[in-house]
Specification:
The chain has 390 residues and is an alpha/beta fold. The protein is 44% helix and 12% strand. The chain contains 16 helices and 12 strands. It has an 8-stranded parallel β-sheet. Strands 1-12 form a two-stranded antiparallel ribbon. β4, α5 and β5 form a beta-alpha-beta unit.
Length: 390
Amino acid sequence: MRHFRYLTPSQLSRLFFRQPQELTATTDPGLLAVALGGTLYTPANRADLVKDVLRQRDLGCASMVLCLEDSIPDADVPAAESNVVQALSRLSEHDGDLPLLFVRVRTPEQMLSVSRRAGHSLSILTGFVIPKFDNETGAGAAFLDALHTIQAEQGLDGTGRRLRIMPILESPAVIHLETRAQALTNIHELLRANREDILSVRIGATDMSSAFGLRRSRDLTIYDVNVVAGVIGDIVNVLGRPDGGFVISGPVWEHYANTERVLRPQLRLTPFVGASEQELRTRIMTANLDTLIREIELDLANGLLGKTVIHPTHVALVHAMSVVSHEEFLDATAIAGNVGGGAAASPYRNKMNEMKPHQAWAQRILLRAQAFGVAADDVTFVDLLEASMS
């Protein structure tokens, strides 16, 4: 798997100063977690999951979740489980040429059932997405126990290929202020004790909003919803620290159809200079994707990498915004490893780089550069979007 694999060699050469690296399920999990990008959710009861997965692979999707939880009516769950098992069996014929695949389950028992029914075809799975993960009710530990059982039964617990989980933080104990600090501390302890089993942490912003009877419009980012933004900040504070923290992904963007706009567009005209780029801006504005671009920018500013998405058109936006700029890369390269301290003007001569305070930032930028590449010095996210959405 490699990001932007659909671009031609000439496009890659023109757009990138350093191209994205090839990644596999056995890549170092720290890099793999950063490289998830736009993780596309698809309901597990869709008629042809195999066709869906292969089509999205060809369009550049690098990670997908086959969802057995909230996207499936309760009455359809047994049929959806069978659908997932059959899809994994057929997809196993394409092993080595697939997105990173996950199954979102409801319970530890369902996780065990799907795994045992899948048998050898489980080897194409990267892991499971766990809803409402916490360490208050014992549910988190129960899911981890199920994972360990599956790893042992399937032989997928070695250093080569290992099944991992991505817990979703969306339980009431995490959301409510009076219990949040202790709940996050307990989750952190559980995750650190099972570090090798955790790929990344995901944020369930829909359940967080629901806890307050809220739902944001397509004109607003999740950071405009203050009670939810506060939860996100606390999650990053406890679980996203450079020393022993985890990669945390951005919350879902749930809008995809064009509707009447209430607020002014958030996408400036300035970056869209050419005629084709202005046409691209019009397409983005028509689909109301300018707020998604703003939210991705705020995700990155708040330490979140990648994003849960529910529509294929969102994947290219997440990936284009995840490419490291030439300026960021030069700054990170100048800072990384320079632990002796001091400060110096940046290579672009437009800011001050402080060697000690910016170490953790530099390391994160260089890791992201491996996954998504580094843009050429004259390339902006608009150029990457234009190439990806053409």
